[in-house]
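Appendix B. Raw example, untouched.
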Amino acid sequence: MFPLILFVVAAAALCIIAFFIADATRWPATLHGKIHQWAAFGTFICMTIAALLQSLRLRFDPYWREQFIEATTIAASESSSSISVPFVVVLPIGAPCARTGTDAAVWR
């Protein structure tokens, strides 16, 4: 039951992300930008934990017991890629921003 609640919370946070757009620039931070950031963080955390818990619970179901290892492997790889991608993918320095057409902020 707990993974289902986390999936519902993640879906609600995803709807909040759609309604509150991200800030076009890094500063000044606006209220709608902060709401977007925190909802995205909540979606990330809830989906990651729910996928791992749900895949681990499959071993108790006789129908899904055969797929337990595959499901857990997929959930773990999704979790590790979701954690590592923000740290690996960086916007190139001087790349044009799609929203404003100006150069993106320098990431250092």
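End of appendix B.
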